[in-house]
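Tip: read the tokens left to right.
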């Protein structure tokens, strides 16, 4: 697995090989695996910015759980193929971030987009000992780092 900011276009590029455990008996990717790959790309993006996706603090936990996920499957993805997940920051709001993801595989007859996904995550906190999460404003430094890395305008209501 590799990840990097992508100089060939907008977004963050995350590469991953389809493992046997991610496939069904026909060696085609199971639909849930692409949702995991999208989340892996998201957390690799955070790590590239020096951001923790989840953080234990003395008073509780902060995290960035998903509140909405969608994926359209366009073509089969097979065992051992390498897929590139291009993660795009589409919107950064006070408490939420919206991402889109393109899943692309290089094949002998040319690159193939095998799926398109999107997800919305929220910044949330939870007190130790509680099961209840509460939405909270994304810390300014984190919000700005994600917006800038995503090519969005910071300030003037853009973020």
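Filled-in amino acids:
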């Amino acid at each position: 697995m590799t990840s990097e900011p992508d100089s060939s276009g907008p977004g963050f590029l995350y590469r991953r090989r389809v493992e046997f455990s991610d496939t069904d008996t026909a060696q085609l990717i199971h639909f849930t695996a692409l949702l995991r790959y999208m989340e892996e790309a998201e957390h690799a993006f955070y790590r590239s910015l020096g951001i923790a996706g989840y953080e234990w603090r003395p008073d509780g936990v902060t995290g960035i759980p998903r509140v909405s996920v969608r994926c359209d499957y366009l073509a089969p993805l097979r065992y051992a193929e390498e897929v590139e997940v291009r993660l795009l920051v589409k919107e950064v709001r006070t408490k939420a971030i919206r991402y889109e993801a393109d899943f692309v595989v290089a094949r002998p007859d040319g690159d193939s987009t095998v799926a398109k996904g999107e997800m919305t995550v929220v910044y949330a906190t939870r007190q130790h000992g509680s099961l209840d999460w509460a939405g909270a404003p994304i810390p300014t430094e984190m919000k700005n780092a994600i917006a800038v890395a995503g090519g969005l305008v910071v300030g003037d209501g853009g973020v």
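The radius of gyration is 17 Å. The chain has a mean pLDDT of 91.
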